[in-house]
Amino acid sequence: MTKHSRQRECIKEFLATRYDHPTAEIIYLNVKEKFPNLSLGTVYRNLSLLTELGEIQKLSTGIGPDRFDGNIAPHYHVLCTKCGRVQDLEIESIDHIDTLASTQFDGKIEGHFTYFFGKCRDCLENKNNC
Amino acid sequence: MTKHSRQRECIKEFLATRYDHPTAEIIYLNVKEKFPNLSLGTVYRNLSLLTELGEIQKLSTGIGPDRFDGNIAPHYHVLCTKCGRVQDLEIESIDHIDTLASTQFDGKIEGHFTYFFGKCRDCLENKNNC
DNA sequence: TTGTAAACAATAATGATTACTATTATTATA
DNA sequence: TATAATAATAGTAATCATTATTGTTTACAA
């Protein structure tokens, strides 16, 4: 049985205010302001739990540490290969690629994860503020 | 200037014989049979170099350690969520999703990486040999 | 040959994440 | 409201994958 925890509540609330997909470290530093003796392990444990519960989303981009997204509505992400920023991308569903994959795979396709990569607007314009 | 190295040669040859996308650790254990005092660092260094040269492909699936693929022809991969196996998938190009993403992204889309997930044939049939 | 620079083995260090343990907080119940 | 049961915590150690360092060896060009 899972009990309420003020730390977990705060982690979830913090994520709801951020649209830049922060890492566990960033979340730790921010939530620590409200809970000065917060432990990094607590952050990781709760991020895992919230991900399992489907209340947040974990992004394993393969570039740097995992990131977390408080928005669980279906959407995609673009990774800037210059500054490392991860931005949201609202596109129409591309779930047809699962059907396509199913026709060629001897087994059951349950879904996919896709990350787009490229250059963000700021990097294209050489603004170094990203 | 990059010099010839028998270790690198052997790593590349080994990858060419394998279709199961081995990890650095597995590659190390196998190539060690020919070079008994091979170092794990040498494996990582050469895998990075070969990846940069475009002679092999690195797969960062987000599940477990990175894997490597000696086949650089464009193709996709399916991760079995039960046994962790990574299998090849030959499907027609889905590069149109980059065009789709471009229409919604304020910046430049250069490509995408997509991993499908599901259950492999062996796991569906409860054969525990995978 | 011989000089030089790349590659090596061995090992230490790092970064991200998970595990452990004694204490504290939450919640059900007396 | 007090108390008992136990989930969650803070603090810390350990692990896992990977990268860095260093002194020695190997490839190759002069």
Structural features, described:
2 copies of one chain form a homodimer. Chain A has 130 residues and is α+β, with helices and mostly antiparallel strands. The first copy, chain A, has 2 domains: 1-73, Orthogonal Bundle (Arc Repressor Mutant, subunit A); 74-130, Dna Ligase, domain 1, CATH 3.30.1490.190. Chain A is 35% helix and 22% strand. Chain A has 5 helices and 5 strands, in the order αααββββαβα. The first copy, chain A, has helices at 6-17, 24-31, 40-52, 96-104, 121-124; strands spanning 57-59, 67-69, 76-80, 86-89, 107-120. In chain A, the strands form 2 sheets. In chain A, strands 4-3-5 form a 3-stranded mixed sheet. In chain A, strand 1 and strand 2 (67-69) form a beta hairpin. The radius of gyration of chain A is 17 Å and the shape is flat. Chain A starts with 5 loop residues before the first helix and ends in a 6-residue tail after the last helix. The model of chain A has no long low-confidence stretch (mean pLDDT 96). At the A-B interface, strand 3, helix 4, strand 5 and helix 5 of A face strand 3, helix 4, strand 5 and helix 5 of B. Strand 5 (107-120) of chain A pairs antiparallel with strand 5 of chain B. The structure holds a DNA duplex (30 and 30 nucleotides).
